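ugh ok fine here u go
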Amino acid sequence: MSSDLAASSWAEKLPTKVTPLVHGLAIASLISQIGIIVTGGAVRLTKSGLGCSSWPNCVPGSMTPVPAMGIHGIIEFANRTLTFVLLFIAIAFIVSVWSMRRSHPTIFKLGLVLLLGIPAQGVIGGITVLTGLNPWIVSLHFLLSGTLVTLATLLVNRTRTELKRLSFPTTTRTIRQVSIAAWIFSIISVILGTIVTGTGPHAGDATAPRHMFDPLLVTRMHTAPVYLLVLATIALLVLISRSTADRHLRAPVLWLVAVIALQAAIGYVQHFTGLPIGLVLLHMLGASLLLVASGDVWDRATLLPKYKRVQN
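structure:
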């Protein structure tokens, strides 16, 4: 009986509405999901992908790296330990919204999926190591992280909407369709970008297998949806400039324009300068920001207006 009372007392202290803490944890989740993409890229670019040769142990019989693994073992193990930071943030978020799981089911479910995605990412990371950095598995590892980044973006938008009591008017059908198209083109470009990476020189280890595709061909395939993304974004700029009802989309679309421009510049420079690791790492950060920006525009144009109607 006393344990039931203690649990009830504990639950009563939890927030019943979105607070700055809840919103802050959602932002922390997004930042950490982007951060582990960047640190994972650093592991590959420093040829530390097999710095820990086993999983879940770093090496057979040891959870931590041994001196024989050198700096590569330290780098890979450090990236693995960051998973626990993500896990802590995800658990803290679920606890913070526990009393809102019925009143705000969308927020709770997004937080739960993000929590479950972290161990799934760890398992795929383990398969990546056990398959000797197979480029298809490496791509899957990155794409799951990209999916979690998109979901974290949706979570941030919803906690911000609840905290600041924002409203999102229904946009025109054309704007909704173009925003969806821009989002899809960004996803396709990121997916094809992982194939370019799997064909390129930065394998993560000298013994890792590579795709046997023509590098120039897959690079051109990667840029094709980028051109379509640019056209869709220009169309969005034109459409929202003609509508006073869609002013709430101007800042997100301009942010998308900035991310595309920066990502395209980095992509072209790295291609023509032999893929220096610093630019490749920035390009991976840019890919994450592209998923955030395009997902934000898509969400604000299509999902958030419906979300507010459901909540109300």
